[in-house]
Amino acid sequence: MTTKPRASMRTAARTATPTEARFERVQPGTVAGSLYRAVKRALLQAIEHGSCTPGSALPSEADLARAFGVSIGTVRHAVDELVAEHIVVRQHGRGTFVAVHNADRFLFQFFHVERCDGLQEVPKVELLHFDRARAGETQAAALGLKAGEPIFEIENRLLLQGQAVIHDRLALPASLYKGLTERRFRERPSTIYHLYQTVFAITVTRAHERARAVGADRTATRILGVQAGSPVMEVHRTALTFGDKPVEFRLSTINTARHDYVHLLSRPV
To answer: Is 142 exposed, middle or buried (0-12, 13-18, 19+ CB in 10 A)?
Structure first.
């Protein structure tokens, strides 16, 4: 990936065409919870199962309302939540599209490291290691696997402003990424999550993270160029797809001497 300033989030493909998904009427007497939640679940299922593909346009709110047999306000409430969760994105004057994992979304939703003065950019990624392995206990627990099950182990060094700032160690369930090779991973045209989405039909919808301060070990000293024992941040991230299914475990070591870990908190819509 090449370095570029953060831009506004424009995640829908320019050539997107209307979806071929078919939706059934929502029956109030058979739905647990409010109607808008039933509409939201139906839209999520269409996206998850590929009826509404990344970058494709959703039908208009009026068409969705007719298909589901509900009011436009009910549809709008459901779509509003999907927008807030970054599953779909509205484009003024064009419609609503299934979100694509491009560099804008990566910065907006999943990359939280920026320079202390607020400068944000897409990092340059250097692949350090790629191999098949067996899941250790920590990796297996995070991914819902049994220890010893096959995984891909990947190591990256991320550079910001030309300086090594992050060391990422990824574990991917081999069963979910059949056909993944070092060449395919290295030559991906966009972000890692874009690769998951476009090649393996795995859309990362959110992530669970735990962070703590630790002293730099020998690996951090070698890869990030920090002194042994100096403070660094360690972040454990489990990336989740639809239904909160884990699809990636990532251990990140971050040199925070000149960079901050910034996360915007907001109330659910």
So the answer is: buried
In terms of Cβ atoms closer than 10 Å to its own Cβ (0-12, 13-18, 19+), residue 120 is middle
Q: pLDDT tens for residues 125-164?
A: 999 999 999 999 999 999 999 999 999 999 999 999 999 9
Domain boundaries 28-98, CATH class: mainly alpha
Q: What is the assigned CATH class of domain 116-261? A: alpha beta
Residues 6+ apart with CB under 8 A from 222: none
- Range(s) within the chain of domains with CATH label 3.40.1410.10: 116-261
Q: How far, in Å, CA of 48 to CA of 247, rounded? A: 14
d(CA 60, CA 65): 9
User: What are the residues whose beta carbons fall under 8 Å from the beta carbon of 265, sequence distance 6 or more?
Assistant: none
Every domain of the chain with CATH number 1.10.10.10 lies at 28-98
* pTM exceeding 0.85: no
Residue 69 three-state SS: coil
CA–CA separation, 227 vs 222, rounded Å?
A: 9
Q: At which residue do the structure tokens 């340059």 appear?
A: 124
Q: How far apart are CA 218 and CA 174, in angstroms?
A: 29
* Angle (deg, nearest 10), helices 72-84 and 61-68: 120
The whole-number pLDDT of residue 12 equals 37
Look up residue 67 and give its two tokens.
């298909």
